[in-house]
Amino acid sequence: MTDLLTPRAIGQSLVRRDGVDKVRGTATYAFETDVEHPAYCHPVQATIALGRVTAMDTAAAEALDGVLAVLTPFNAERLASTEDAEYAVLQSTEVAFRGQLIGLVVAETSELAREVADGITVTYAEQPHDSELRTDHPGLYAPEQVNAGHPTDTAEGDVDAAMAAAEVTVDHTYETQMLHNNPIEPHATTALWEDGSLTLWDSTQGVHPDRAAVCEVFGLDEERVRVVCPYVGGGFGSKGNPHANVMLVTMAARALPGRPVKLALTRQQMFFLTGYRTPTIQRMQLGADRRGRLSAIAIDVVEQTSKIKEFAEQTGVPARMMYASPNRRTTHRLAPLDVPIPSWMRAPGECPGMFGPEVAMDELAEALGMDPVQLRIANEPDVDPDTGKPWSSRHLVECLREGAQRFGWDSRGPGRRREGDWLVGHGMASSVYPTMRQATSTASIRFSGGRYVAEIGAADLGTGAWTVLPQIAADALGVDVADVDVAIGDTRYPTASVAGGSSGTNTWGSAIVQAAREFRGKYGTDPQDGDEASGDVDQAAMDDAHAAYAFGAQFAEARVNADTGEIRVPRLIGVFAAGRIINPRTARSQLIGGMTMGLSMALHEDSVFDTRIGQVANHDLADYHITVNADVGEIEAHWLDEHDPYVNVMGAKGIGEIGITGTAAAVVNAVHHATGVRVRSLPVTLDKVL
Ligand code: MOS
């Protein structure tokens, strides 16, 4: 694969091009879109966890001045496709989970819409529901595959025999909690249906995938639908697919032709409607000889899905490739429950899947009396154990060594060191995330008014796409980055893949490089105003011969108050090998953002599901605790100067998600080193260490 010959803009710590507008409040988000005379929506949600709506009394609401429409399952338009049960809003009176959408009020003001929606009397035929995840759930089943197209189960060799023969074994069950994405900008849309065409200003991680989903559900021609989204106030996966609110607001727009309508979910509504990280129960088995060479690795995962739409988190997948062992087994089983629909949350699969295995490795190191860093190094595989393919590049050992050195790991000592009232401990874990590139994206490059403009329907959800895509375009064109603009976040630009799976920069950047080559091929270095060329992701250059992953190592210091059990993490250091870094400034933000979210998972975030009523009890930011500045001490992200020639023409791997993988395990391992208490379920709260 050809390399970009002279990176000049790539590698520079350029400031965010959208930063000033965001800080000044002049960047327009979906709900703020300036439309004429908007109407406002407020949903009606089911207050039972399972059953059927038998009646909704809407007469009084409809008669009120200022109420424009009341949509219910009894009067809503019939959708073209109801195949996806999440999107089939108001198509039936069945209630599959508490909080499901059963109606919508559209009114002249948001206050009126909310007041009226809350006042509608709903009658139900209620049934007993089942919303409790447990390993002996009678409905447990093996899905056909798990997410991202991975096989549900894998097996090689004989784990049971290897465990029986191993000199040292670990066999424990670990649990990761239910978690909810809480981007600061809620899921919000402004929608306008006019002359048979639809415009959605929607907060989304991908305008084209968003449009495709809406067109499918409503049976619309893509030519007649435009999705616009220049800025996103965070997504983390929750805006990777549209959720039911997007279909509902589209329905409202179609009910009121010519009138723009707005729907912003409340924070509480998001806890029912916009997905969550499914809780997981992971039985881990490790067998090794006295020198720490693994002979067996097994992970058996039980996790939940909603009954109406399968979501199979690929939790067991990282255990397939992290360490060498002749005997390996991974399985996934799903418990179908009467619960809201799980979805993507930063590093779905790898994030929960690097918890059990990385704590189990720490437990094995302890049982062996071996340093946990050395244990990992001792089990470094030459090739991908799962596929047998060579690595495109794998610098885990280098990350472990550099991280240990930066952290001062060698001074770690035997643990339970006391400083005043505080017990101090050090822990570590590995990180991993696959390097993915989506197959389809197109970019075009136009020369206009002496400037180059790269157009692509990409999304910047706070990650830096506005800033790094011009860097890639500039180097591909061989011009100064100051002479390059990008235009993103609109379906009027060429088709772009979702900002998900840490694949955005890889995918869109590859298309931009291709467009630049086409442009230069057509017009040379002296273009005229109006010259334009486009390029696609080069399929032929997509490497399938190598296993491509970013790797990392994270080191944490935990301090646990000896009397109260209060847990603090004053130091967190990560070292990553993620290919060429396009922009150190935005990359560092991505990595420490991931690590902070991992710290949050370790200590704070927890969607407490009340199985009696089938809902998250702490469904607001007052009770759902997210790590804030005061909870973060020193947090550092470093990286190796890695250039991977196989992944794409930039040599860059993804960095959006790897930062959150392994963090919670590093913290748990540090807490154990501090206290001697091994916490196997997240989050680590003080009651668990006392
Ligand atoms: Mo990310 S959870 O792949 O949007």
Q: What is this structure's SSE topology?
A:
Elements: H1 19-24, E1 39-45, E2 51-57, H2 59-63, E3 67-71, E4 94-95, E5 101-107, H3 110-119, E6 121-126, E7 145-146, E8 150-151, E9 154-156, H4 159-165, E10 168-176, E11 188-194, E12 197-202, H5 207-218, E13 225-228, H6 244-255, E14 261-264, H7 267-273, E15 280-288, E16 294-306, E17 327-337, H8 350-353, H9 356-368, H10 372-378, E18 391-393, H11 396-407, E19 417-419, E20 422-434, E21 442-448, E22 451-455, H12 465-477, E23 484-487, H13 504-523, E24 532-536, E25 547-561, E26 567-577, H14 584-603, E27 609-610, E28 615-616, E29 634-639, H15 663-675, H16 686-689
Parallel strand pairs: 1-14, 12-13, 16-17, 18-25, 22-23, 26-29
Antiparallel strand pairs: 1-5, 2-4, 2-6, 3-5, 7-8, 9-17, 10-15, 11-12, 11-14, 15-16, 19-20, 20-25, 21-22, 21-24, 25-26, 27-28
Helix pairs in contact: 9-15, 12-13, 14-15
The structure holds dioxothiomolybdenum(VI) ion (MOS).
